[in-house]
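Sequence in, structure out. First:
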Amino acid sequence: MFPARTLQTSLRASAHQFSSIPRTAAINGVRTYATPAQETKPPVALFGVDGTYASALYTAAAKSSALDQTSRQLNALGDVFKKDAKLPIILRAPTLSAADKGQIVEELQKVAGGPGKSDIIKNFLSTLAENNRLGVLEGVCEKFSTLMGAHRGEIDLVITSAQKLDNKSLQRLEAAVSKSQYSQGKKLKVVPKVNPDVVGGLVVEIGERTIDLSVSSKLAKLNKALTDLV
C-alpha cells in the first residue's frame, strides 16, 4: 500500500493558488484540453515521454493564457523533487493502486496550489496517473522550464561545479558571460548544477557551447600527455 504519510510529509512544503482549464479526450496517448480555436505551439521541440507531456501542457496553458501560472505551479512541484530524493522512487513504484494514484494527485495538487478557477494542473496530473506516467513528472517540470525559457527569449547558462556555489559567485559568472559573445544578446537563465566528478573548477555550458575549466578535465589532459610519452 502506498505510504501516504511519507508523501504528505514530502509534498506539503509550499502551496499557492493558480488556475487551470478542463481536459478533453486523449489524443495519441496524451490528453489535450478544451481551448480557444487559436493554436499555440511550443517554441522548441522536445524529445522523450516527458518532453511530449511538457509540450502538450505548454500548448494547453498557452491557449488559455495561463503560461505564467502553470510555470509557477510546476516550479513549486519541481522544488519538492529537489528537497526529497524519495519522491521519484514513490512515483515510479509499479505497485501503486488506483487509490494510491488518486491520493498522490491530490497531494501534488496541494503543492501546486490546490483548485482554482479551472483545473489544468489537476487534470494533467490525473492524466499522468491514468497513463501510469507519474514517474515522468520530474522531467516534465524540467522540460516545461526549458520551454518557458525559450518563450521568454532566455538562454540557459549551466554552471557545473564540484560543490554548490553561493549566489554571489553565480551572479559574477552570469555578469561575465552576459558581456561576452556567447550570450548572443539574450537574457541568461542561470542553471547551477553540482557534480563531484569535476573535482574543482567549473564546466560552463551556454547554448551549444561548452567551456570546460574543471580540474578533472585538466587531469585527463595531463594523463593523456603522460600516456603518450610512454
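Second:
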Amino acid sequence: MLRSMYSGISGMKNFQVKLDVIGNNISNVNTVGFKKSTITFQDLLSQNMSNGGANPMQVGLGSTGASLNVNHNAGSAMSTGVGTDLTIMGDGFFVVQDPEAQPGEGQYLTRAGNFTVTAAGDLVTAQGYNVLGSNGQAINIAGYDSYAINRLGEVIGKQANGNEVTVASIGISTPENPSGLRKFGGSLYQMTAMASPNGINMQTAVQKNTEIGSGMLEMSNVDLTEEFTEMIIAQRGFQANSRTITTSDEILQEVVNLKR
C-alpha cells in the first residue's frame, strides 16, 4: 500500500509538469517564432517480489520524466506587408547578437523575424539585437534612399541615382540537432555543444538551400486542439493518481481499525 502511495505521488508530480508544459505552450500560441515543447515519461525501477516461477514477479515503483523536447517544426506564415518582417521558408535560424557583447560573443538563434531598422540604419530585433549577415557582421542599410530584401536573403539598397547595391545577405545557421538548443527567452536560443559541436556557422540562404520570405512572419507552431486534448489527458491522469493515494489511505485506515 505504501508503494502504491509513492507511485501515485510520482504520477501526480509528472502530470503537474506536463500541465506546466501545456500551459506554457498555450500562453505562447500567438508568439512569433515560438516552438512548442513536449514531455515524455518512463517507469522507475521495479521491485522484485520473487525469483521463483517461470517469469520474474516485479512491482513497479512509479514513473519519472524521460525527456522534455522542443518541437522545431515550422509554424504557419502570416502576411504583414512590412518589408523588414522576415520568415525562413525551410530549415535554419536567423543569427542575432547583443550589441553590448564582445565580438564573437552574445550570439543567439531565432525564428522570430519581426525586425526593424533603427535611425542609424541597423537591422535589429524587437529587443534591439543586431541581425547578422552571412559574413558575421551587423547589417546596416544607412545611406540608401530605399531598400528591399529578396527571396535569396539579399538586402538590396537603392541609391539616389537609381543604382541598386547588394548591402548584405541575411545569415542563416542550421544546427545539426536543433532540439539541443537552449531557450534563452524572447524567442531566442543559445547554441550548445549538443546542438552543434562546431558552434554557430552562418551561410547565405542559397547555401542553406532555403528562401527568405519578406513581409511575412512565422507564427507559433502550437496547435490548440492538440494542447487541449493533452490537457484533458493530463488532468485525468492527475485525478487517477490522486485517487490511488486516496484509496491506499482508506485501506490503511481499515488496517488501523482492525485493532479496535
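Remark: The radius of gyration is 26 Å.
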